[in-house]
Amino acid sequence: MSKKNSVLKFGIFSAFLGGAYALTNYIYKLTSVPVQHTDESPDYDKAITAGRMFVRNHKDKQDMYINSIDQLKLHAAYIPASSNSHRYVILVHGIKDNHEYNGIYAQYYLSLDVNCLLPDLRGFGKSEGKYVGYGLDDRLDLMEWIYWIIKRDPEASILLHGMSMGAATVLMTTGEHLPENVKAAISDSAYSNLRKQFAKTYKTMKGSILPASVVVALARFIIYLRSGFDINDVRPIDAVSKSKTPTLFIHGDEDEVIDPQMCSRLYEAAKCDKQYCMILGSGHIHGIVTDPVNYWGKIRSFLSKTDF
């Protein structure tokens, strides 16, 4: 082999490695680096913004901190009910957001005399963390918050209510062995399987030239290498098949982010007491503003049939 050919092949190999490194870095940044919500990031509805301000300025809001099992400092906002209520809801936000998103939900639960705990998932808001957990590590964090409540109030009756990635976190949590204090769960627009969700999201992106299977495989590899978990393990659909927690599955029929059929599959797979609610005309996690009467009516009906 001539020296010229060797140099050419080495150049091609180096370019390939450089391109692969750049691509995996891009995929990791896109999928796994937490993006913080700011006041310059517009909400999809003014009611969501009003909810943020409700939490931010609430006179009784308290900032609470715990440590995760891997020693991250986790934050939550806690707003007590007006009376000595033993009912609590843990409201779990989705990706690219923080606890303030759930202010609109907290307003309603407080009107029902329910104490509200609004955690920042790891990597978001005031919680430490360098990567998006998609519900896998977050389920363990949520369990720590559950025990935080029980330690304060052994008579606590706890509801878990999550949106999008927060809903997946809630479902993953219900697949664990939970204390009897956890009475019910509400999943609003969860994915059933992270690998399939990655593929679906990639196919909707502009410039998606490579086959989805290749990009998802690269994402799986780089996330495992840098974040330490396998996206194939993020399967809320497996968690609900083990759950004993009564669960309400909510989804919008016009959701273009997470396929509404994923909600149907989750519902079918669940072995716990369960109910299903499709919000007509609603996009991704928009049910709360698209049809609040139906949204809260279904939740009240569901909770009336639980021990919460």
From TrEMBL:
Q: Where are the transmembrane segments?
A: none
Specify the domain of life of the species encoding this protein.
Bacteria
Question: Which intervals hold domain AB hydrolase-1?
Answer: 89-205
Q: Which InterPro entries match?
A: AB_hydrolase_1, AB_hydrolase_fold, DNA-binding_regulatory, FSH-like_dom
Under Pfam families, the record lists: Abhydrolase_1, FSH1
Serine hydrolase domain mapped to chain residues: 220-284
Protein name, please? Alpha/beta hydrolase family protein
Q: Which species is listed as the source?
A: Butyrivibrio hungatei
